[in-house]
Design goal:
The chain is about 75% helix and about 0% strand. With about 200 residues, the chain is mostly helical. Helix 4 (about 60-80) packs antiparallel against helix 5 (about 85-105), helix 6 runs antiparallel to helix 7 and helix 7 packs antiparallel against helix 8. It is globular and about 50 Å long.
Amino acid sequence: MRIRTPAVVIAAGAGVFVLLTLLVWAGAADGLDGAVARFAAHHETGPGLSAARVLTDVLSPLVDTLVLLVGAGALSARERRLRPLVVAVCVLAAVSALVVGVKDAIDRPLPHSHGHPAQGFPSGHTAATACFLGTLALLASRNDPRRRRALLTIVAALSVLVALALVSAGFHWLTDTVASLALGAAVIAAFTVDRLGRVLIDP
C-alpha cells in the first residue's frame, strides 16, 4: 500500500506531461491555448499584470535554483553529510536537462515572442518552483510527516500561483504551465517510492 499512491501520482504526472507534449507538438492544443490567452488578455488589469511580474521575478528559475542549493548546502552542513546537496544537484541537473531538451525539441514560441526565438513549452518557471522548492521541502522535512505536508502544500500553492500569473499575464500558454505542474508532481512523488525514498530522504 505504501508504494501505490506515489506510483499512481508518478504515472499520472508523467502521463499528462507526455500527452501534453505530444498535443503541443502536433498543434492540437493551439485552440485551447489561444482561447485561454484571449480570455486572459480581455480581463487583464494593470495591478494584476504588475503582481504577475513581481511574482514571476521573485520565483524565477534562477532564484529557485539558488534557494535549493543554499538550502541543501545548509542542511548538509548541519547534518554533516553530503546527501542533501547531492540530491539537490541531481534534481537540478535532471529537471533542467529535461525542460531544456523538450523546449528545444518542441520549439514553441511564447505568446508575446514577436518573432524572437523564445521557447515556451514547458514552462521553466513553473517546473523550477514545483521541482526545486518541492525537493527542498522534502529534504527539510525528513522524518517529520506533518512538516512535510505543510511545506509541500505551500510549494503546491506557490507553483499554481506562478502558473496562473504566467498565463494571466500572457507570458506562457496554459499547456506550458500545466505540463510543468504535472512534471513537478511526478518528480516529488518519485522521492517517496520505496527504495528511492529511503535512499534519498530517510537517514
